[in-house]
Amino acid sequence: MISELRSELLKQHSTRTNLGLLSAMLALVLLAVLLHGFGLRAENVDSTSEQLTLVVGWGERLGAVFGGLLGAMSITSEIRHGTIRPTFLVTPQRTRVLASKVLGSMLFGAAFGLIATALSVGVGSAALAARGIESQLDGGAYALFFVGGAAAAALWAVIGVGLGAVVGNQVPALIGICAWLLFVEGLLVGDLIGAAGDVGRFAPGAAAAAITGQDSDKLVAPAVGLILLVLYAAAAALAGSVATARRDVA
Amino acid sequence: MPIKREENEARIDDGARVPLVPAEARADDPVVTVSSLTKRYGELVAVDELTFSLRSGTVTGFLGPNGAGKTTTLRLLLGLAEPTAGEALVFGRRYHELDNPARRVGAVLESSDFHPGRSGRDHLRVLALAAEIQASRVEEVLDLVELDSDAHRRVKTFSLGMRQRLGLAAALLGDPELLILDEPATGLDPAGVHWLRRFLRRFAEQGRTVLVASHMLAEVAQTVDQVVIINRGRRVASGRLDELTGGGKTLEDTYLELTDGES
């Protein structure tokens, strides 16, 4: 298993894929945090929850999106380019291959999450400070945000691997992750009342946000969010493993 | 000598019937055993009750028209696909039951199984890590296929011939006893084909075994000891090359006769 993991880590850093994803993520975090840090009315960003959710929270959201993308890329690019064949010839135990992708993508995902949250906190605090708005975030809130952001992106990377293994085709897998996290979840945990709003809190994107302490009056507690997201990730990895084991390789 | 078209019923006694093995072969067990192998995709029968076996020290041409089931058979043999019925064994076992299979079997199925953005050397290092093969072996096989000076480049800059050689280098990483190649000469220039032919002969002379699926009959005729010809998933002939090409017949004549002129 160690040898497969080392192989997977080299796979992920011997192409420019992850570097490209990282650059795109950093650019989007910068854009989103600057827009909201400078663009929102002062009275809308003067509480702890508002600052965390509306300004710096973009680091967590985009970290989760790009963690999911890198996880999905790790398996779908092997299918797309055919390297899955030599990979399975060397390691015919496909579950081991998938497990190495889960672990490898978690490591890269955690790094993505840390970098994204660090950038969003840095830029967000600077933007608010430049406008003379006092930061309401203390050391504990920052710590939860960093650790939670790393966990959210790492677990979303696992979801990406599982989804990529089930879907197989790269483009739908990537679009699916973006559409879900950036659009569908926004609908679910928006201002819907009744059942849809209640259910939305338990969705995997909302669970990821909850881990970092965002929007605490709408979302579940951080620990509950973590447990939920671990369950989603485990289910995705299991589904991916079953799909990979059963399917013939073209 | 007339060629008798074989019955389609499974015959597992191939090794006994055809003296495919030189007497001094080091192993008694067939290196490859395909018995009653069948693969269906819905209505389509890609491989139909196919039976043959290979002994060590031989180069075998695996011939047939497009869609005859050659590549499917190789994928079944290598555990990439599951047979519908029958079995395909290497060294008496199913591929995934081999302990570190890269050290026993090397295979190239497609000439394009590379990430275009990864360097040739990193492609090999990735596989070497997974197979627990020393990094120095990567340089050895790069040397062997004469890619050492280009290995730092990304594969997207490689010609088809270079990709073929890189694929072969990957298959050779584990110093395998059995080499399985699908259309290995595609994209090679005449010097490359010559090199490949000599390489395969030397490989077999060391008591190792080669199975090469190909369309290039003239090329095959110069390289292999024996052939297995299939058509529509079924074996239509097998045997030593001299048995199939006697009486003024070329391999091409025999092949066209047996495959209804399809190609």
Q: Tags for this entry?
A:
heterodimer; A: about 250 residues; mainly alpha; 10 helices; elongated; B: about 260 residues; alpha/beta; 6-stranded mixed sheet; 3-stranded antiparallel sheet; disordered N terminus
Describe the 3D structure.
The complex is a heterodimer of chains A (250) and B (263). Chain A has 250 residues and is mainly alpha-helical. Chain A has one domain (2-246). Chain A has helices at 2-13, 17-39, 48-81, 84-90, 94-130, 139-167, 170-188, 195-200, 204-211, 222-246. The longest helix of chain A is centred in the middle third of the chain and has 37 residues, at 94-130. Chain A is elongated. Chain B is α/β, with parallel strands linked by helices and 263 residues long. Chain B has 9 helices and 9 strands. Chain B has helices at residues 14-17, 70-77, 120-131, 135-144, 160-172, 190-205, 217-223, 241-244, 251-258, and strands spanning 32-41, 44-54, 59-63, 85-90, 105-108, 178-182, 209-214, 226-231, 234-240. In chain B, strands 5-6-7-3-8-9 form a 6-stranded mixed β-sheet, with helices on both faces. In chain B, strands 2-1-4 form a 3-stranded antiparallel β-sheet, covered by helices on one side. In chain B, strand 6 (178-182), helix 6 and strand 7 (209-214) form a beta-alpha-beta unit. Residues 1-27 of chain B have low confidence and may be disordered. At the A-B interface, helix 1, helix 3 and helix 4 of A face helix 3 of B.
Give a brief outline of the structure:
The complex is a heterodimer of chains A (250) and B (263). By secondary structure, chain A is mainly alpha-helical. Helices cover 80% and strands 0% of the residues of chain A.
